[in-house]
Structures are given as C-alpha cells and as structure tokens.
Amino acid sequence: MSLSVLLRTLPTLNAINSQMSSLSLLSRQPYSMYKPFVKEPIYNIDKLDKFIESGEAKKCEFVPVKAARNDHNVSVFHDELTNKFINMVMEKGHKELARNLVEAGYMKIKQLQLAKYYKATTDIERAEIELNPITIFHKALDNCKPILQLTPIKRGGSTYQVPIPITENRARFLAMKWIILESREKDRKIHFPEKFALELIDAYNNTGKVVKRKQDLHKQCENNRAYAHYRWG
Amino acid sequence: MAVLREVLIFNLKCFRGVRSYFCPSPVFQCSSLSLNNASSNVRNLDFEQSDTKKISKAMKSYMERAKVHDNFIKDQLHQYNLGKRHLANMMGKDPEFFTQKDVDEAIRYLFPSGLFDPRARPMMKHPDEIYPKRKAAEFDMNGRPFHSLFYTSKPNYYNLMHDLAVKFKELDRHEDRMISRGIRDQKPSELFLFGSDWIPKEKIESVLLEILTDAQYSNLIKTLERFTQHPYAIKEKNFVMQFRHQLAAQTEIQQVPELMKDESNRPYTTFSARRKKSTATVKVIGQGTGLLSINGKDIHYFERKQHKEQVIFPLEFCNVLGKVDVVATCEGNGFSGKVGAIRLGIAMCLRSFVDAETTERMRLAGLLSFDPRKRERKKPGQAGARKKFTWKKR
Q1: A122, B98, B182, B187: most buried by Cβ count inside 10 Å?
Q2: What Gene Ontology biological process does one annotation of this record name (chain B) (predicted)?
C-alpha cells in the first residue's frame, strides 16, 4: 500500500501530518534562504492593482517580500504559463534555445492564422479567427487538460487501475507534457516549432492527437469506473 | 582587568541543575508580566539564627548555593568597578563619570581585535548583563513549595497557560451575556494586532526565567493566536500586547537618498548592489532620453533576451522608460548575477525619482528586495548539492 493511500485511509495520520506542518511553520524551512513568513512578490501590474484595491496590501506593509525572480517582468509579451512551458521544453539548462523554439512556434501560429485571416472574405468569418498566439496557447492547453487519471491500487493480491480526479497542477503538467511529446514526434525535415504550431492550432479547435490522448484516457477511466470505489478503504 | 574574558569562562555548571528552584513570588501575579523581579525578591531568610534542625535539606542546599552565588556576583561587581576605574585612569578621564559607553570605547581602543563575531571580541560588561538572572527560593524552610504548580518544574509557564485559559472562559461568559442581551455575530477585531508580531522564544524565556522547549513555545503562541480570534479579544488587549512587539515598516527601513546634481545640473543617484557573486554600481540620471550604458556598451552587453528584459523591468514598472539615463558598471561571475545586481541597483535608484506609493508598489513587486539565494554547496558523500552517487549494493 503506497503512503498516499495510507494517509488517505487513516484520518489520524493526516491530523498528525497537519500538526507537524503547523509546528514547522515556527522553525525555519530547510534549504530556503528566506524566512518562512516572507511573502511572494506580485510583479504583474494588474494583479498588483487588484491586490492594493482589495486592501490586502495594507496588511503586508510590515511583511518583507521575496525578490522578483530572473524570469519575471512586466513586458507585454510576458506570460506566466508560457514561461512554465518554456521551462518544460528546456533541456540541460538551455533556456534561451527553448525560448527561441517556443517563440518561433508562436510566430508560425501567427503566420498561419494571418494567412487564414486574409483568405477569409467576410467580416464575420474574420472575427472568428483568433490571431493572438498566447490566447491560442491558453485555450489549447485548457482543451488538453484531463480531469481524471488512472492509478494502480493493490486490492486482494491483484492490482487495479483505479480512476481518480487529478489536481490542477497535475492536469497542467500532463497537458504540457503531451503537447511536447507530440511536437517532438515528427519527420526529420519538420522542426519542433512548426509541429508545435500545428499541434496547438489543432488543440485549439479541440481536435488533434493531444486532445485524442486526453479523450483516450477519459475513455479508459470510464471503462474502469467499476473499480472507482477502491480509492477509499 | 580580570573581569574581562575570565568572567565569561566561569560557567553556570554548579547552578545548572537547580535553576528552576530559584524563584521569587510567582512572576505572573495579577496576570501581568513583571520584569526584573528575579533575584531582587529573594525572600529574606535569616540564615544564621534559624534553627538548623527545622530547615529541610533542599532549603539548606539552596541557601549554600545562594550564598556562593551572591558572593560570586559581589566579587564580580567589585572587580568590574575596579576595572572601570583603571580604564578611566588609563584613558585620562574622571572615574566617577565613566559610563559603560566609555568602557566600551576604551576596550575597543586598548584591545583592538580583528575577530569577526562581535561576541568573540574582548569586552567588559556589568555582571548583571553577563550572568543570567536566577529564580529565588521557591519553597519555605520546611521545603514546602510556594507555588501550586511547583511540581510541573515550569511553574511560571504553566501559570501563564492557566491564566490564558481563565481569561478565555471569562471572554466566553462575556459573549454569553452579550448574546442574552441580543447582541450577536460580533466580528473579531484583529486591528490591534496590526503591525506587530509575537515576541520570540528567547524573550519569553528571559521573562519567565524558565527554559521552554520548542513545542511549549509553539503551544503558547498557538493558544495566544486562538485567544486573539475570540470575538471579544479586544477586551484583553493589554494582556495580549505584552506578548507582541512592534514591527518596523519595511518602507521606513529603506531610507530614500536625496537627489544630487551633476555638472550639467541634471539630478542623479547612485547605488551599488549585489546578487550571487556579482556587484554592480548603478547611476540613474534624470531628464534623460533613455540611454543605457552597461560597462561602456549599450543593452546588447547582455546577449540573452531574458537579461535584456531584466534591465528594463524596473524602468518599465515605474513608467520611466525613455525618461532617465542609466550608467552601470558590473563585475563578478555570470550574466545572471550581473543583471540581477543591475536590476536591484536601478530599482533602488528609482526610489528617489518616484513617489512613495510607487516605491511601495516596487517593494511589493519584489524589486527592492535583495535576493539572498546563492549557489548551494556540494556535500561530501554526494555527487553535488542534492545529487547522490549511483547506489550500488556491492
């Protein structure tokens, strides 16, 4: 029985766990250079405005703030989710290369969408075409996010694939991972940015291999719904 | 001069086991913290005249220890005063008006030390500052303890916890009374806690004269937290505030430097900042056209987009892009560190050019904080800071 299952089954253990975490709040966190009470920075101007308007900022007048990180900025092209994606594309710390690849992909999307835009004749058709690659990326990612996952759980000597709901973080991770894997599966002559652009546009329209992958996973979960109760007990 | 370092060497070994025995009348009388009532409240015990047969063994050993301790402190005080007079004579000043500040200065002058830690340098302090205060006797001649919580071994701590519980009940009763009068849904007012924090463990220990474990301290703080969340906690404001200390406002800590004028009468400020192993000196000049100079080159000194964005980040954040000139020199290891140092330098300089509100915004955005993160060291027995060697059974 895995630890997480054990924790889920035993409420008392959970209680102990939470107690320990509250205790550790008082002592310093290991490895962190910041004290535990230091606040995360809010560098996005819109978020900061909201934060100040809500009156939360007044409470933080006495709380020290962590330094903004190297990949934070207020550029109009800045996008947190894209940053996350770039970090996942990155291999061996070549961040500049990863960033160039993703941006080249965005450029390709822009070109493709603009071509469609100019091809369209009426204004209604043109209005439907999304030209902003970042919006396309966000919607495509949303379309690729699964809501269920299979996890092996041992019951009575045999292992069952049990469907369980997944967290927002895990869903995002899986969607990004699938997009990257599909983008890397290509002919020698096609490069990553082109395949990435095509995959994103497909996913934006709720078609394509990545969305298929998500649907397959959901189908499998549906097939195994009989085991769903093994999640508890 | 014997008081100097030798004083510190003498440790509390002979008293350690009995620290908690020395206790004045309960510290938390009338539920209030009373400071500095430690050894001054020693019960006046007539050592010589009392019948030795009636005195319990505990009392006897306590009296012996108290006597030794008193003599020791008296001796130390004498030596301290003597040393002070000597120092005053050496420095050519009047011994009568020689203060502790003068003593510190004299020591610094006569015993120059290159040791890094201030506590390791030579010093001469009043014995009261060096030797921790001790509790007076907690029991009478027959060995009967004064305090009902004596056998918890931490009577002051548990007395405080008990007080808290009693006050909690009082507040509950008050709430019941209010409800019976028809006043409901009273919102807890946490406003009086604003801008202050719970006092640290060491301070509580020095007041209680008892050593607390981490668990006991966190228990106390948790109880106090819960106490403040009571709808009518404001009634006990004075009691709670004894355990809180005021925090200094972050914006006040960082004092904004005045703008200076250069030859062409343009305002400017400078700041030197660090990040990782890099240092940067930044000069921001007002009434500019957005010129950037980093080690003599323009922004293309940095090849990566991310680094270029970092240089512009504070300027863009304050809407001064194209309105000020920046001259920066940086040195030290990689580009990431250099650009981090330059960013901090620019942001710090910009404080003089923008209003207080924007400064506070910059602080919340993390532009004015020093980034303390550093390369983590490699550990012995491991391949790197976190990476382990491949594990082989044999």
Answers
A1: B98
A2: translation
- Euclidean distance between the first and the last CA atom of chain B, given in angstroms as a whole number: 62
Strands (E), chain A: 148-155, 158-165
By C-alpha distance, which of B247, B270, B124 is closest to B193?
B247
Domain co-membership, B294 together with B270? yes
H or E element: which one contains A210? Answer: helix A209-223
Q: Report the mean per-residue pLDDT for chain A.
A: 85
* B269 three-state secondary structure: strand
Q: What is the dihedral of CA B226, B229, B231, B237, to 10 degrees?
A: 90
Distance from CA of A96 to the nearest CA of B (A): 7
Identify the CATH number of the domain in which residue B316 sits: 3.30.230.10
Query: How many A/B residue pairs have CB atoms within 8 Å?
Result: 100
Which residue is it, tokens 């942001």?
Answer: B347
If asked whether residues B11 and B141 sit together in one domain, one would say yes
Instruction: Confirm if A203 and A144 have CB atoms less than 8 A apart.
Output: yes
The whole-angstrom separation of Cα B59 and Cα B144 is 9
Is the same domain home to B64 and B179? no
Q: What residues have CB less than 8 Å from A50, skipping those under 6 apart?
A: none
The per-residue pLDDT for range B111-125, each reduced to its tens digit, is: 998 898 888 999 899
Q: Please tell me the distance from the alpha carbon of residue B95 to that of residue B88, in angstroms, as a whole number.
A: 5
Q: Specify burial of residue A36 (Cβ count, 10 A radius: 0-12, 13-18, 19+).
A: exposed
- Yes or no, beta carbons of A23 and B215 under 8 Å apart: yes
For residues A19 and A101, the model is more confident at A101
* In the predicted structure, residue A220 carries a pLDDT above the cut 90: yes
Percent of chain B at pLDDT above 90?
Answer: 39
| Host domain of residue B67 | 6-146
Which residues face A149 on adjacent strands? A164
Query: pLDDT for B63-116, tens place per residue?
Result: 888 899 999 999 999 999 999 999 999 999 998 899 999 999 999 999 998 898
Q: Give the span between the Cα atoms of A139 and A134, in whole angstroms.
A: 9
Up-side HSE of residue B130: CA atoms within 13 Å toward CB?
21
Q: Which residue of A has its CA nearest to B316?
A: A74
Tell whether A48 lies on the interface with B, counting CB pairs under 8 A.
Answer: yes
For this complex, say whether ipTM is above 0.90: no
Q: Which of A45, A59, A68 sits opposite B367 (nearest CB)?
A: A68
Which residue of chain A comes nearest to B385, CA vs CA? A31
Question: With pLDDT > 70 as the criterion, what percentage of chain B qualifies?
Answer: 83
CA B15/CA A7 separation, integer angstroms: 47
- Give, to the nearest 10 degrees, the angle between helix B305-317 and helix A95-119: 80
CATH number at residue A220: 1.10.455.10
